UniProtKB/TrEMBL annotation:
This is NDP-hexose 2,3-dehydratase family protein. It comes from Hamadaea flava. The lineage of its organism: Bacteria, Bacillati, Actinomycetota, Actinomycetes, Micromonosporales. Residues 10-212, 236-435 form the dTDP-4-dehydro-6-deoxy-alpha-D-glucopyranose 2,3-dehydratase domain. InterPro entries: EvaA-like (IPR005212), EvaA-like_sf (IPR038153).
Length: 453
């Protein structure tokens, strides 16, 4: 196919199948000690790259009064540099189109997913690896042409990254750009439909798209059921967040990986003694379409699929979601606005002493389901990491009185916080993208159970 601007699902799927089949990809699990150019540092045991760039895996000591476990140590990814997640958009005949890429990542459960126009760490786009340049990068670094629609530093998964941030940026252009292999223009309406498909729109796309709903007038908006007067003023919510940041304590100290207890090496992986949480493993990769066509790297592999979800209900005719001021091991500023529930249920089903997350059973209960889709997490760092994303309307009988760490927001208010950066966590941002274009709730499918693929 030569056409690469799509409004139609069938045409897109035909193009996407071509991209997937046009070259061979290979990802092989290997022992961490066999990952070329990576090594365990003498003395600390930290896993580092020979260049000193990219990222490392170190130990983290955490103390907080905002989790059931007051102190723990764990492995964590340390990546000090700020990468770029950039999306080019343009308006053609009153329709907004996004320039997206069918991109291979070694951790993707289905190999190729839709990424934003640019998805690159600083080490990648400064070509530490000695490979090719990143396509379209010049549109996202100064000086650049085009209109900045959205630009914010955003956090990533605080359970697995230490204070990691990426620059999320959307640029609107008026003219044409040369269309590279594996790239296409997708209408926003089509992207909204593709967000309902499991493991298709990658995490980097979802976080950038969360900045779009209120940035462009007209074509992109939330349906009227999800906009309107809020139960809390914006200033009240900001004060609620500031209160949480001053109420709680989060102490973080990077330590040698060798000093993390309860973790041990087994068959080339670093694993938890109880088989919980995640493991540190490695892959060897071949991919002709990438800036570097072959490489090895360590990755984090979660033990099971996670669960991320908002409880929602109408308040005076306007839909609100229940947000949680949440602390993670690697959170930069004590708490961020997160979903009502974010956990890996398998961690609570194996004799864990941790208390079952608040509202988990409500989320999996009898409400009306608005969103229910499985999406992959960052395939460049996490191996086959998936979360089930849920938004459930629990009905107007659900109590408005909630614990102090929770607050009712409209989706419009939540989107507004996204534009300031570093306030809304990555899971809540992904849910915002999944909620764009919602209409009326669909009845819950009773045949679905957690973990069903």
């Amino acid at each position: 196919m030569t056409r690469a601007m799509f409004d139609d699902l069938a045409e897109f799927y035909a193009w996407f199948a071509e991209q997937h089949d046009r070259e061979a990809y290979r990802t092989e699990q290997i022992p961490v000690e066999d990952a070329a150019a990576w090594r365990a540092e003498t003395g600390t045991g930290n896993i580092v790259h020979d260049s000193g760039k990219f990222f490392s895996i170190q130990g983290l000591h955490v103390e907080t009064d905002h989790r059931d476990t007051p102190a723990w140590r764990q492995p964590i990814i340390v990546q000090d540099e700020i990468g770029i997640l950039g999306l080019l958009v343009k308006v053609v005949d009153r329709t907004v189109y996004c320039l997206m890429q069918a991109k291979m990542e070694p951790g993707n459960i289905n190999v190729v997913q839709l990424s934003p126009t640019v998805q690159a760490t600083r080490s990648n786009y400064t070509r530490v690896h000695g490979g090719a340049t990143v396509p379209y990068l010049d549109h996202f670094v100064a000086p650049r042409s085009g209109r900045t629609v959205f630009d914010a530093l955003q956090s990533e998964q605080g359970s697995w990254f230490y204070q990691k941030r990426n620059r999320n940026i959307i640029i609107e252009i008026d003219g044409e750009v040369p269309l590279r292999d594996s790239f296409c223009w997708l209408s926003v309406d089509l992207v909204i439909e593709l967000l309902k498909v499991p493991n298709l729109v990658n995490m980097d796309s979802r976080t950038v798209l969360s900045g779009l709903p209120y940035a462009l007038p007209g074509p992109i908006s939330l349906r009227s059921r999800f906009a309107g007067p809020a139960v809390h003023r914006f200033q009240h919510i900001l004060s609620w967040l500031c209160e949480a940041k001053t109420r709680y304590r989060l102490y973080q100290e990077l330590i040698p990986l060798a000093e993390v207890p309860h973790w041990h090496w087994s068959d080339g992986r670093l694993v938890h003694g109880e088989g919980r949480f995640f493991s540190v493993m490695a892959v060897d990769v071949t991919a002709a379409s990438r800036e570097v066509t072959a490489w090895s790297q360590p990755m984090l592999a979660p033990i099971d699929r996670g669960l991320v979800g908002f409880l929602g209900r109408s308040i005076d005719g306007v839909f609100h979601v229940l947000a949680h001021a949440r602390t993670e091991a690697g959170t930069r500023d004590i708490v961020e606005i997160g979903p009502s529930v974010a956990c890996n249920p398998a961690n609570y089903a194996r004799g864990s002493h941790s208390r079952r997350p608040v509202f988990l059973d409500v989320l999996l209960g009898d409400g009306d389901v608005l969103v229910d889709v499985v999406h992959s997490e960052e395939g460049g760092r996490f191996y086959h990491a998936e979360n089930r994303y849920l938004v459930v309307d629990v009905g107007e009988d659900f109590d408005l009185d909630v614990p102090d760490d929770y607050c009712w927001l409209t989706i419009e208010q939540l989107s507004r916080f996204v534009r300031f950066g570093n306030l809304v966590n990555v899971y809540a941002r992904c849910l915002i993208s999944c909620m764009v274009g919602l209409s009326e709730p669909a009845p819950r499918d009773r045949s679905k159970s957690f973990g069903a693929r």
